[in-house]
Design a protein that fits this description.
It is found in: Nucleus. This is IBH1-like N-terminal domain-containing protein. Keywords: Nucleus, Transcription, Transcription regulation. With about 170 residues, this protein is mainly alpha-helical. The chain has one domain. The chain is built from 8 helices and no strands. α2 packs antiparallel against α3, α2 packs across α4 and α3 crosses α4. It is elongated and about 65 Å long.
Length: about 170
């Protein structure tokens, strides 16, 4: 559908442009299936709408849902509010109490905390819209995003297999 929306310009596209168009189409289609109910789907649609030719493609794929999914929604406000609340909570909980813990335990727990924090930051960069999520929401959205990516890969495999069968005959 994404390639069809480009019409006659498909013939003028090089391989890289086709690849980008197919990826953009697949991402928008995958996000539209979720109907803007997840942060990652709204982030994918917003990112696609910001691209040079992406807005037309998004409008063609989403149709009447375009305005609803590209408007700043209450969900985006709520995720921002969650992060702000989390920061307030973190500041209020951090007191300057001195704890007497065995040095090995302190060292092991601080290393574990750093590892978790580092991996969480990497995950935030991988999931669309992950920068504005708290840790729990990030994990929940990541699971949903992985399932959607798996479905996308399966669909693309089926399309590639069907294309090979058609070209082979």
């Amino acid at each position: 559908m994404g390639l069809q929306s480009w019409g006659s310009s498909i013939k003028d596209m090089n391989l890289l442009e086709r690849r980008k168009t197919i990826k953009l189409s697949a991402d928008v289609a995958m996000a539209s299936v979720r109907g803007g109910k997840t942060c990652w789907s709204r982030a994918l649609i917003a990112n696609a709408s910001k691209q040079e030719n992406g807005k037309t493609l998004v409008r063609n794929i989403l149709g009447s849902e375009f305005e609803k999914l590209t408007k700043p929604s209450m969900g985006a406000f709520m995720s921002h509010k969650r992060v702000r609340s989390k920061n307030i909570l973190r500041r209020s909980c951090s007191s300057h109490r001195i704890r007497k813990i065995a040095p090995k335990r302190v060292q092991a727990s601080s290393i574990a905390k750093r590892m978790v924090k580092k991996r969480t930051q990497i995950l935030r960069g991988l999931v669309p819209g992950g920068e504005s999520m708290d840790d729990f929401s990030l994990l929940e959205e990541t699971l949903d995003y992985i399932l959607s990516l798996k479905a996308q890969v399966d669909v693309m495999r089926c399309l590639a297999d069907a294309s090979e069968l058609l070209n082979g005959k």
